[in-house]
Write a structure and sequence with these properties.
The chain is 26% helix and 16% strand. By secondary structure, it is an alpha/beta fold. The protein binds ligand MGD (2 copies) and molybdenum atom (MO).
Length: 676
C-alpha cells in the first residue's frame, strides 16, 4: 500500500496515446445511506480505476467494503449511465427522451422556474434524500438555490425522523455509544435477526414500546436499578414507573407475540448487567426498522431509557446506539453550506417528503397553499421509495407538473421527468462526509474525470443560479471551496492526507451523565414531548379488526441485502444475486394458503398489488411477511414494487412514514386477475 504522502497527483488533462500516467491513490468515502460511511482508497491510472478498496487503517472500515460498494466502478462505468442532458419527447412517464445541450436544458429549466416563481415560488418543490450523504453534493448549493428562490421547504422524514425525535426527546440529540465498543459488550440486544447479538427475539412489528415497558417494570420490581445513576442523571423516573407498572411480562409476551420464558430470561440478563453488580456491560443496538410504525418515536424513547435504569452508560461497552450523527453538530457548517438566511424573512411552507403522493395530487387550498407546479429531484428516487406508489406515480404523471431529475440512471423517477440532468458519481466529484454510525469525518476527492457531460449536483445548481440571475457571491463557490468550508475544527490538509479525522468523543461519554439536554440529564417526559407510552400500530388486529380480517398478514419491507434502498438494482451482478423481488413467508402461513416456495404471488390490500416471488422461510415469523425492498418498479414483476401496498400515514413523532405498519394478504400470482 502506497502512503498518501508519496502519492503523485498527476494532472488529468492531457489526452492521447502517450505513455501510461503514474498511479495515483485517491482518498474517497462511501456516499451511501448506511451507518458505516467507509473510507475508501482508489488506485487510478489514466482516468481508470485499477483498484477500489476499503481503507485498512480506518477503524470502522477495516479494509473491507460491502458487496455493493466493492462493485462501485461497475456503477460508474455502467453502459446505461445518463451522460448528457435529456428532454422528454414521449408522453409523461414513457421514458422517451432526446439528447439536448446543457445550454438548452438549463435555459429552458430557468425560464420555466422563473415563470412559476413570478406567481408563487412555493409552487416549486425540491425533493432530495440520501443518494449521496455528502455535505457538498447533498444540501449545499442546492439548498442555497432553493432558499434564494423561496421554494417550498422539504421535510426530510423518509428514513429516520421518528427515531431522531425519540432520541432528542430522551437525550437531547442523536448520540449514543461508539460502534467499536460493542465488541466489549457482554450482552447485546437487538430485536431483529442478527447473529452478532447475544439475544434475539423476533417480536411482532410495532411492539417495541410494550417490550421496553415490561423490561422497565421487571427491573423496578426486582430492584435491579442503578439508583445513583437514576437520581443524578435521569429526570422523571416516577413517570416511567407509572407507565411501566401495568406491563407485566405476561401482558407484554402476549402483545409482542413471544414466549413468556424468553422475555423473562431477557429481563434477567439485562438486570444482571446492572452497574455495580460486577457484571459486564449491556448494549442495545436499536435499528431504524422499529421506528417505521405508528408508535415508532415513542418506542425509541422507551427503549433508549433502559440503559439509564441499570447505569449501563457508565461503561464504554454499555448504553445504546441508534445514530451517532448528533456528535457532528458542532463541526458541520450547515448554515454556511445551506444559507437559510437567503430566504430573507419569507415564510415558506414545508412539504413532507413522505406524503409526496397525496401532496402532488392536492389542489391549491388555503391550508396547503399553491398546487405543486414544479418538482426538482436529486439524490432520491421517490417513485420507487415513497409509500403508496400508485398515488406517487399518478402525481408525477400530471401533465401540468414540470419535473427535473438529476440522476446517474433512468430510474423510475427519471422516467417521469421533463428534463433529466446527468450527475457525477462519487468518484468524479469532491465531498466531505459525516456519519451516523461512527464519529469520523471522511474526505472524498475526485478520482476520475466526470463521465460524458456529467456535472456535480453543486455545479448544476450553480449553473441554474447563474441563469436565474442570482448574484449573491455564495453562488460562485466551487465544489472544492464547499468541501474546504464544510466542517470546522478539522485540519483540511490532515483530512486529505489520512482520508479521515476522528472527532474527540470520550470512551464512555455519559458515564457521568452530561447528555445534550438543557439540564444534562436524560428525560422521561417533558412539556415539549409529553409522556412516552406504547402506541399500537395503525393497522393491526387490535386497532383495525375489520381490516385485519381481510388482510391478516403484517408486512415489513426491510432492504434486500445486495441493494442500497433502490440504488444498485440496475447493477447486473448484484441483481443476479438477488434474483427476483421476493416476499418471505413462514411455512405455516404458506401452508394455510396452499402457496408453494418459488411460485409467483400477489401481495395485496386496498391500496394496490405487488407481484413477486414467494420464499417460504422461517426467517419470517408467523403472521408477518417480509417484502424485501426496494426494487425499481420497471425491473420488478409487472412493473410493481413493495410500495404499492404501503400507506402514507405518519408516525407519532417526527412525521415519518410507517412502512412497517401495513396489513396485507398474499395469494397466487394470477388469483386476482380473474376478478379484473
Ligand atoms: N445492504 C443494505 N444496507 C443498508 C440499506 C440497504 O438498502 N441495503 N439501507 C440503509 C438505510 S437507508 C437504513 S435507514 C438502514 C436501516 O437499517 P436498520 O436500522 O437495520 O433498519 P431496517 O433494515 O429497516 O430494519 C429491518 C429489520 O428490522 C426488524 N424490524 C422490523 N420491524 C420491527 C419492529 O417493529 N421492531 C423491531 N424491533 N424490529 C423490527 C426486521 O426484523 C428487519 O430485519 O440500513 C442501511 N443499510
Ligand atoms: N417499503 C419501504 N420503502 C422504503 C424503505 C423501507 O424500508 N421500506 N426505506 C426508506 C428509507 S430508510 C430510505 S433512506 C429511503 C431511501 O430513498 P432514497 O434516498 O431516494 O434512496 P435511493 O433509492 O437509494 O435513491 C437515491 C438515488 O440518488 C441517486 N444518486 C446517488 N448519488 C447521486 C448524486 O451524487 N447526484 C444525484 N443527482 N443523484 C445521485 C441514485 O442514483 C439513486 O437513484 O427509502 C425509504 N423507502
Ligand atoms: Mo434510510
Amino acid at each position: 500500500m502506497t502512503s498518501s504522502a508519496a502519492r503523485v497527483d498527476a494532472p488529468s488533462t492531457a489526452d492521447g496515446p502517450s505513455a501510461l500516467k503514474p498511479l495515483r491513490e485517491v482518498r474517497a468515502a462511501c456516499p451511501h445511506d448506511c451507518p458505516d460511511t467507509c473510507a475508501i482508497r482508489v488506485t487510478v491510472q489514466d482516468d481508470r480505476v485499477l483498484k477500489l478498496q476499503g481503507d485498512p487503517n480506518h477503524p470502522m472500515t477495516h479494509g473491507a467494503l460491502c458487496t455493493k460498494v466493492s462493485r462501485y466502478v461497475e456503477r460508474v462505468e455502467h453502459a446505461d449511465r445518463v451522460l448528457g442532458p435529456l428532454r422528454r419527447v414521449g408522453p409523461k412517464g414513457s421514458g422517451q427522451f432526446v439528447a439536448v445541450s446543457w445550454d438548452e436544458a438549463l435555459d429552458e429549466i430557468a425560464t420555466r422556474l422563473k415563470a412559476i416563481a413570478a406567481r408563487d415560488p412555493q409552487a416549486i418543490l425540491p425533493y432530495s434524500y440520501a443518494g449521496t450523504m455528502g455535505l457538498v453534493q447533498g444540501e449545499s448549493m442546492a439548498a442555497r438555490f432553493f432558499h434564494r428562490l423561496g421554494a417550498s421547504l422539504l421535510d426530510r422524514t423518509i428514513c429516520a425522523s421518528a427515531g431522531a425525535a425519540g432520541l432528542t426527546a430522551t437525550y437531547g440529540g442523536k448520540v449514543g455509544m461508539h460502534t467499536e465498543h460493542f465488541a466489549q459488550s457482554k450482552l447485546i440486544l437487538r430485536t431483529e435477526t442478527a447473529d452478532k447479538c447475544h439475544r434475539h427475539l423476533a417480536i411482532r412489528p410495532g411492539t417495541d414500546g410494550a417490550l421496553a415497558l415490561a423490561l422497565a417494570r421487571e427491573l423496578i420490581v426486582r430492584d435491579e436499578l442503578d439508583h445513583a445513576y437514576i437520581r443524578e442523571h435521569l429526570e422523571g423516573f416516577e413517570v416511567l414507573r407509572d407507565r411501566a407498572m401495568p406491563w407485566t411480562l405476561e401482558r407484554a409476551a402476549a402483545e409482542c407475540g413471544v414466549a413468556l420464558e424468553d422475555l423473562r430470561e431477557l429481563a434477567r440478563d439485562y438486570g444482571a448487567a446492572r452497574h455495580g453488580t460486577g457484571a459486564a456491560p449491556a448494549a442495545i443496538r436499536l435499528n431504524y426498522g422499529m421506528q417505521r410504525v405508528h408508535g415508532g418515536g415513542n418506542a425509541v424513547r422507551l427503549v433508549a431509557l433502559l440503559p439509564c435504569l441499570i447505569g449501563a452508560w457508565r461503561h464504554a461497552g454499555g448504553g445504546m446506539l441508534l445514530s451517532s450523527s448528533g456528535w457532528f453538530a458542532p463541526v458541520r457548517r450547515d448554515q454556511w453550506l445551506q444559507r437559510p438566511d437567503l430566504l430573507a424573512g419569507r415564510r415558506t411552507r414545508t412539504i413532507n417528503m413522505s406524503t409526496i403522493g397525496d401532496d402532488l395530487l392536492r389542489p391549491a387550498d388555503p391550508e396547503f397553499g399553491p398546487r405543486i407546479e414544479a418538482i426538482v429531484v436529486y439524490n432520491s428516487n421517490p417513485v420507487a421509495v415513497a409509500p403508496e406508489s400508485s398515488k406517487v406515480v399518478r402525481g408525477f404523471q400530471r401533465e401540468d407538473l414540470f419535473t427535473v431529475v438529476l440522476e446517474h440512471f433512468l430510474t423510475d423517477t427519471a422516467d417521469q421527468a421533463d428534463y433529466v440532468l446527468p450527475a457525477t458519481t462519487q468518484l468524479e466529484h469532491w465531498d466531505v462526509h459525516t456519519s451516523y454510525g461512527h464519529t469520523d469525518v471522511v474526505i472524498n476527492e475526485p478520482a476520475l474525470r466526470p463521465r460524458g457531460q456529467a456535472r456535480s449536483n453543486a455545479q448544476i445548481f450553480r449553473d441554474l443560479a447563474q441563469r436565474m440571475g442570482f448574484d449573491d457571491p455564495c453562488f460562485q463557490d466551487d465544489d472544492e471551496t464547499l468541501a474546504r468550508g464544510a466542517v470546522r475544527g478539522i485540519d483540511f490538509a490532515a483530512l486529505r492526507q489520512q482520508g479521515w479525522q476522528a472527532l474527540e468523543v470520550a470512551d464512555a461519554p455519559f458515564a457521568q451523565g452530561g447528555f445534550p439536554t438543557p439540564s444534562g440529564r436524560a428525560r422521561v417526559a417533558s412539556a415539549e414531548w409529553g409522556v412516552p407510552d406504547y402506541i399500537p400500530n395503525h393497522e393491526s388486529a387490535a386497532s383495525t379488526p375489520e381490516l385485519a380480517q381481510r388482510y391478516p398478514l403484517a408486512m415489513i419491507s426491510p432492504p434486500a441485502r445486495n441493494f442500497l434502498n433502490s440504488t444498485f438494482v440496475n447493477v447486473r451482478s448484484l441483481r443476479d444475486i438477488e434474483g427476483e423481488p421476493l416476499v418471505e413467508m413462514h411455512p405455516d402461513d404458506a401452508a394455510a394458503r396452499s402457496l408453494l416456495d418459488g411460485q409467483t404471488v400477489c401481495v395485496f390490500n386496498d391500496r394496490g398489488r405487488y407481484h413477486c416471488r414467494l420464499r417460504v422461510s422461517t426467517r419470517a415469523r408467523p403472521g408477518v411477511v417480509n417484502g424485501l425492498g426496494i426494487w425499481w418498479r420497471k425491473l420488478g414483476l409487472r412493473g410493481t414494487n413493495v410500495n404499492e401496498v404501503t400507506h402514507q400515514r405518519l408516525t407519532d413523532l417526527g412525521r415519518a412514514p410507517t412502512f412497517y405498519d401495513c396489513l396485507v394478504e398474499v395469494g397466487p400470482g394470477d388469483a386476482l386477475d380473474a376478478a379484473d
